[in-house]
Design a protein that fits this description.
This protein has 9 helices and 25 strands. The chain is of the alpha+beta class and 470 residues long. The chain folds into 3 domains: 149 residues, no CATH class; 146 residues; 96 residues, no CATH class. The strands form 5 sheets. Strands 1, 12, 13, 14, 15, 16, 23, 24 and 25 form a 9-stranded mixed β-sheet that branches. A 6-stranded antiparallel β-sheet has the order 17-18-19-20-21-22, sandwiched between helices.
């Protein structure tokens, strides 16, 4: 009877041992499961800025410095023995008006004077007659402004809509129309004048270059001694222009690129030249940045060793575990944290081994922290009773490791919001730009072979103010 009882006790202990050993799924760091998560997307970002410039601003620049002489030439042939001397002077300030179809109409007061000459041979004799004229007029010229590839404000489809008076004259029974002659010469002169330095005072290229550089300039935030630097690599520049009936020139400047981050020393970003310009068909005012907080495994290891290594994990009143040498890696869709441990028991010798803790990285909105969920746990040691004892306390151990491995980033998010407002301000020669009330949210979290990536997304609008204008 006693023998049967002893066998029953033995079988019970064996079943208990097998149950405890089988209760935890074995973790094999060298043979991780296949990840099922999709690769993290590129952190694409874009900003679209409508820059509103009153036509009065262009008008003022056109009227600051101007030469009164527009055109002067003698002996222009009109055909059929007709010639003309022409002298055209600008006599007043240019006025601009926005019209339909993205057109600007320009009224240019001018004075047209000269001589019409007719030379005819009659019976072998050359007869010559002059007809002087001196006329004031204000022709209306229209054109479409267009930003060129060199960032000049080009003049497209320049046309003289009307002269404000007839350009036909009667000379000895001949009707002479000066329109074709004067039109061709004046269009060439006005094209040069409107494209000259008066309009390029705005320096659109410099404005775009500064915006391009501001978009790629790194900015830094700090969380408990951990410095994180966000920076972008711009890749595409888009621009278009619009003339409105409320007398504005609107430039739609769009920049696209990819955002990156680096922990530790500030990255050295080499300035890049402006790329080719693409047409911008978007007229909205928005800033949409996706910023990856990239936590490389070696940086995570530094944090975990600082927070966990050497700390006590109590399993019961007689035993504590001291973890050390923590190291992380990808483990399927989870992050695996491996650590050495020393088990200290009252009145008994120390036991050494390894523990493995694998969990899915998630972002806790309430705590504003990166945590590990859906935890797996395993222990490796040559001491079978110790292995059983630790596995029997796995929930308690998991809970403590889970708590210590939490990475709070609330202050980092707060600093990132403040830094966005600071970095979102820059100046050009004629305007200031500022991000209005950027909203920073966590977009998602991804686990890769090299790191854990927390995607932060900020949205807002740009406030653009021309200098000397309200």
């Amino acid at each position: 009877m006693s023998k049967i009882k002893n066998n029953s006790i033995y079988l019970f202990k064996m079943l208990l041992l097998l149950t405890l050993l089988g209760a935890c799924k074995s973790i094999k760091p060298d043979r991780p499961p296949v990840a099922t998560q999709e690769d993290p997307p590129a952190a694409l970002s874009q900003v679209n800025i409508p820059i509103v410039i009153p036509l009065s601003f262009l008008e003022e620049n056109l009227n600051k410095d101007w030469s009164s002489k527009l055109f002067a030439e003698k002996g222009l042939s009109l055909g059929s023995g007709l010639f003309a001397d022409l002298d055209i002077d600008r006599t007043g300030k240019i006025s601009l008006q926005g019209a339909e179809n993205n057109t600007i109409k320009v009224r240019v007061p001018m004075n047209l004077k000269g001589d019409l000459k007719i030379e005819k041979k009659v019976f072998g004799q050359v007869l010559s007659t002059n007809f002087p004229f001196n006329e004031s007029m204000s022709p209306v010229i229209s054109f479409i402004p267009e930003i060129g590839r060199n960032w000049d404000l080009n003049i497209k489809n320049l046309n003289i809509d009307n002269w404000g008076r007839s350009m036909k004259y009667n000379l000895l029974g001949f009707e002479i129309d000066l329109d074709p002659l004067v039109r061709n010469q004046l269009k060439r002169v006005l094209d040069n004048q409107l494209s000259a330095a008066n309009l390029t005072r705005l320096d659109f290229k410099h404005m775009a270059q500064e915006t391009w550089e501001a978009f790629s300039e790194p900015y830094s935030v700090e969380e408990e001694g951990m410095q994180v630097h966000f920076y972008s690599v711009p890749s595409r520049l888009k621009v278009s222009e619009e003339i409105t009936l409320d007398q504005k020139l609107i430039l739609y400047l769009g920049i696209e690129g990819e955002m990156f981050s680096k922990i530790g020393s500030k990255p050295m970003i080499a300035p890049s030249v402006l790329p080719n310009i693409y047409y911008n068909d978007n007229k909205e005012n928005f800033l949409d940045l996706t910023m990856p907080l990239i936590l490389k495994h070696e940086d995570l290891d530094d944090y975990l060793n600082k927070e966990i290594s050497g700390k006590q994990i109590r399993t019961d009143s007689k035993t504590v575990l001291i973890p050390s040498n923590l190291k992380s890696q990808q483990y399927g869709d989870k992050t695996l944290i491996g650590m050495d441990f020393t088990a200290i028991r009252n009145g008994q010798s120390e036991i050494k081994g390894k523990m493995y803790f694998a969990g899915m990285p998630t972002f806790d909105m309430d705590q504003e922290a990166i945590k590990f969920e859906n935890v797996e746990f395993d222990v490796k040691t040559g001491n079978l009773p110790a292995k059983m004892g630790i596995k029997s306390k796995r929930r308690k151990i998991q809970s403590q490791i889970q708590k210590m491995a939490t990475l709070p980033i609330g202050n980092l998010l707060k600093e990132a919001r403040l830094e966005m407002q600071k970095q979102g301000y820059f100046e050009t020669d004629f305007a200031t730009f500022r991000v209005k009330n950027p909203d920073l949210q966590v977009e998602g979290i991804y686990n890769t072979a090299e790191d854990i990536r927390l995607y932060l997304r900020t949205k807002g609008q740009m406030d653009v103010r021309l200098k000397n204008f309200k």
